[in-house]
Design a protein that fits this description.
Chain A: Its main location: membrane. Chain A: This is Amino acid ABC transporter permease. Chain A: One of its GO terms (molecular function) is transmembrane transporter activity. Chain A: One of its GO terms (cellular component) is ATP-binding cassette (ABC) transporter complex. The complex is a heterodimer. Chain A is an all-alpha fold. Chain A has a single domain, classed as MetI-like (MetI-like fold), CATH 1.10.3720. Chain A contains nine helices and no strands. In chain A, helix 1 packs across helix 8. Chain B is α/β, with parallel strands linked by helices. Chain B has a domain of about 70 residues. Helix content of chain B is about 40%, strand content about 25%. Chain B has ten helices and ten strands. In chain B, the strands form two sheets. Chain B has a six-stranded mixed sheet with strand order 6-7-8-3-9-10, sandwiched between helices. Chain B has a four-stranded antiparallel sheet with strand order 2-1-4-5. In chain B, strand 4 and strand 5 form a beta hairpin. In chain B, helix 4 packs across helix 5, helix 4 runs parallel beside helix 6 and helix 5 crosses helix 6. Chain B is globular and about 55 Å long. The N and C termini of chain B lie far apart (about 50 Å). Classes of the chains: A mainly alpha, B alpha/beta. Chains A and B meet through helix 6, helix 7 and helix 9 of A and strand 6, helix 4 and helix 6 of B. The complex binds adenosine-5'-diphosphate and magnesium ion. The site of adenosine-5'-diphosphate has 11 residues of chain B, from strand 2 and helix 2.
Chain lengths: ~220, ~250
């Protein structure tokens, strides 16, 4: 059975139906992972015993397979009376898992900012919170746009893990077509190419952001 | 608050500071009256930066007291914040925010700390940029300016918060020689306007013209305190004499 281009094209609209779901999961997980990761890193930097706890948590997240997170959230939380939808669990799992990696990226980005920046803010009487938001975070983003973009692509590529929770994302949809028709090559290829296209769009977007951040400060 | 407190901007009393086991400030006492211009000099590593960083709370100290207009620094968080807001700091390395325009560098604290509206903050910042003779650069980024221009912006940024005391830590040491004068001229202008200042510098011409007192530090102590004419022509302490010789040669 050869590759049937017409059949492949016919599967495209069916697979793209699940594009919304893939994008929804990817985008919210990127935002969630970045938000959690950034807060973890800021908490870790506060130091002391609490900083050590956060440090341990970051390492723990990174040392655990992503499926463990998804299964734990989905099957164990209900025992404690927390019942979340498969979609919510999927987004929460991806966000938590990648927050550990992004925290490390943010750490490198903040370490590269000269100490004098925070001191100048402090000397002007700017509070800790405002210093993080208006002085540290923008300079950090400029330092880490590229590695952060790589993790965003990784998050996109991890969305098919949600198949284990029966969340209807693109690869799952492709697989459904395959099992209904017994033709695997076409739907899986179409899904693969769609992922590739999305990844390229994210990379372009990150490159654009990087250039913009670089020219805005002309450094 | 008695009369002497009103005329005193900073009172440092028996200040002691350690970095771990290293005793960096040894029993420092210094009173800065309103309007005084005090120049601090001394060999590298003598504790000059540590001292002025203690005065605005960037560094903690272990013994002694620092009072800014009667408000004690380091007593509790609220008092420290209150005291710190009376000071403006200019660093050797400028420390401008590279991702913000010159104007935004100046207005950030006005808006976030003083809660000023954008228009009002822009207006005020523009006045200070005019004062440091750099109004036409307001919409550029720090990276597009020369070192001398950046340091003048840093001065304007500190002035925006209306400090009672300006602290300068070697403001011209990172500058190319041809830019030193434009920065010193701005600081001299501030002194003429009556600004109280503590300035770490080795610019002797500036010290002679502007300072009413030169404080010489060595190994964490104040070794000599004298009017500039006396200090530069006939320093009492041998280590001060030695230091001046190294500056001249
Ligand atoms: N954060 C720090 N930790 C440990 N030692 C320090 C620190 N900052 C400065 N020192 C030491 O304290 C001494 C005085 O430093 P500093 O106040 O910067 O002197 P100066 O400004 O007169 O050159 C130096 O020996 C320096 O190495
Ligand atoms: Mg110094």
């Amino acid at each position: 059975m050869g590759f049937d281009l017409d059949f492949a094209i016919a599967t495209l609209p069916l697979i793209l139906r699940a594009l919304d779901m893939t994008l929804l999961v990817a985008v919210t997980s990127c935002i969630g992972a970045a938000a959690i990761g950034f807060n973890l890193e800021i908490l870790r930097r506060a130091g002391g015993a609490f900083g050590l706890v956060v440090r341990f948590f970051i390492d723990f997240i990174r040392a655990t397979p992503i499926l463990v997170w998804l299964y734990c959230l989905y099957f164990i939380l209900p025992f404690y009376g927390v019942r979340l939808s498969a979609l919510t669990v999927g987004i929460a799992g991806l966000s938590l898992y990648y927050s550990g990696y992004l925290a490390e990226v943010f750490k490198a980005g903040i370490d590269a900012i000269p100490k004098g920046q925070a001191e100048a803010a402090q000397a002007l009487g700017i509070g800790r919170r405002d210093t993080v938001i208006f002085v540290i975070a923008p300079q950090m983003l400029r330092n880490i746009a590229a590695p952060m973009g790589n993790y965003f692509v990784s998050i996109l590529k991890a969305t098919p893990y949600l198949a284990v929770l029966a969340v209807p994302e693109m690869l799952g949809e492709a697989f459904d077509i395959a099992s209904d028709t017994y033709r695997y090559a076409e739907p899986l290829t179409v899904a693969g190419i769609t992922f590739l296209a999305l990844a390229l769009i994210i990379s372009r977007g990150v490159k654009w952001l990087e250039d913009r951040l670089a020219t805005s400060s002309a450094r | 608050m008695d009369q002497s407190d009103k005329d005193t901007v900073v009172r440092i009393d028996a200040l002691q500071k350690w970095y771990g086991a290293f005793h960096v400030l040894k029993d420092i006492s210094l009173t800065v009256p309103r309007g005084a211009r005090i120049v601090i000099c001394g060999p590298s590593g003598s504790g000059k930066s540590s001292l002025i960083r203690c005065v605005n709370g960037l560094e903690a100290y272990q013994q002694g007291t620092i009072d800014l207009e009667g408000v004690r620094l380091g007593e509790n968080a609220a008092q420290t914040t209150l005291a710190r807001r009376k000071t403006g700091m200019v660093f050797q390395s400028f420390n401008l925010f590279p991702h913000l325009t010159v104007l935004a560098n100046c207005t950030l604290a006005l808006r976030r700390v003083s809660g000023m509206a954008r228009g009002e903050a822009d207006e005020l910042a523009s006045q200070y940029l005019e004062k440091v003779r750099i109004p036409e650069q307001a919409h550029k980024y720090p990276g597009q300016l020369s070192g001398g221009q950046q340091q003048r912006v840093a001065i304007a940024r500190a002035l925006c918060m209306n400090p009672r005391l300006m602290l300068f830590d070697e403001p011209t040491s990172a500058l190319d020689p041809e830019m030193i004068k434009e920065v010193l001229d701005v600081i001299t202008g501030l002194a003429k306007d009556g600004m109280t200042m503590l300035c770490v510098t080795h610019e002797m011409g500036f010290a002679r013209e502007v300072a009413d007192e030169v404080v010489f530090m060595d190994h964490g102590s104040i070794v000599e305190k004298a009017p500039p004419d006396q200090f530069f022509s006939q320093p009492c302490h041998p280590r001060a004499r030695e230091f001046l010789n190294t500056l001249l040669h």
